[in-house]
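Q: For a teaching session next week I want to show students how multiple molecules come together into a single three-dimensional assembly. I've collected the sequence lines for a complex. Could you give me the predicted structure tokens for the whole thing so I can convert them for display?
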Amino acid sequence: MKKLLLILLCVPLIGFGQNPNYSEDIAPIIYNNCLQCHHNGGIASLSLETYSSAVFNSGIIQHLTSTGEMPPWPPDTLYQNYAFENTLTIDEITKITDWISNGTPIGDTLLLPPMPTFSNTSQFGTPDLELQMPTYSSTASANSDDYVCFSIPTGLTTNKKIRAIEIIPGNPQIVHHVLLSIDISPSSSVTTTTNCMGPTGKMIYVYAPGSVPLEYPQDINSIFGVELAANSSISLGMHYPEGSFGQLDSTKVRFYFYPDTTNIRQISTDFLIQNFTFYLPPHQVTEVSASFGPTSEDLSMMSVFPHMHLLGRDMECYAVTPSNDTINFIRINNWDFEWQGFYFFEKFIKIPNGSMIYANGHYDNTISASNPNPIPVTAGLNTEDEMFIFIFQFLPYQLGDENIFIDSTYISTNINYPNINNSDKQQILKIVDILGREIPHPNPNQPFFIIYDDGIIEKRIIIE
Ligand code: HEC
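A: Of course. Below is the structure for the complete assembly, covering every listed component.
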């Protein structure tokens, strides 16, 4: 009679796998972390769907992954962790380097993970409201971007409760980001505002290439959402990058509502941190800071949206509680206007009543290729102005909020971005004894280790 004892589970061994091959080691990284942008017809012009494309671009892939430029994920993950984080581990970066220095072997293609699929069909079913901006021709020139806002009337005659939001870029290759807000001033036609870095009104969602749709969290006790008032408009703040001149776009936003009778816990969006009075003299780096508080009740923070324009260099925001604990929200070490969004905390973060929120950041107004003639810059909404804000999505705290995962519902309904690292796809690489010697099969009553291809090691013993 054999008994199997599982003594120790899941010890990742860094540095394991010095002979990585494409099928087992590299394709899983690319499929999971790159293809959402680098597929045919995706935002990035380079498709990385095939072995040959990965090999052909291996040099630049190695460079951009080791510098951290790809995949793009601006927040510092040593400071705070987020839902939907897309970063590579040191181990994954090492695998890419080792794979290239070993001559990019393909391995056994039968072991390739399933190719993720990308389509415009929604994971949420039929939208309850779909709004589309008029077809627009980008006015971006060879060296300046186009920022334009469209305010589109919803035509709603009753208030609705938003469950999920999805942006479908009309022309994914030129839509660099979309800032979405609710504009409550009634209007009967679409308003277009040029030179617009961001829409006015209550910001609720940001699309950037690769971003996931927003589905508000739910658990047994709480259903979260946002009210969309009757007669309001939806503003799309569009960003088309340089070089897109003359290309057409007509981006859509889709809303999914809860039944009208649903009791939702309404999420607020607010510019908790803002400084609209700073001045950035030319030829220097200037620090800007701001604070908020003390807060007047316990709050549950869901997400943060840090925002600067083109001179921004870095920014950081955190809370200090009455008992002097520091709670980190976000730190961006290399601000890049091209990559911005709401960053959702893994779980709601509780900020106790009486806390202060602090933020600081730096602007670089010295001579550079993108800023050849520095001039004095002040705070403002236009491209040539600067901003220093942190928008938060939050609500009054209720007991247990800090245990609610923000993306738990997303994971369960996720069809577009399969998590291919799950354990049923693990392959056994080898079995070793306690001294690390490979053995053909385990011996009873002696501990042994199963080494899987994803770096996980299990220690087991069969007792006879
Ligand atoms: C969120 C979207 C996104 C993700 C995820 C992403 N990229 Fe990119 N990548 C881009 C964009 C946008 C560019 C800009 C150039 C373009 O349009 O191809 C780019 C550029 C590149 C380039 C340079 C292409 C060139 O011709 O100059 C390489 C190589 C690259 N990415 C590799 C990767 C790898 C490897 C991963 C995954 C580890 C990854 N990227 C993840 C969006 C993304």
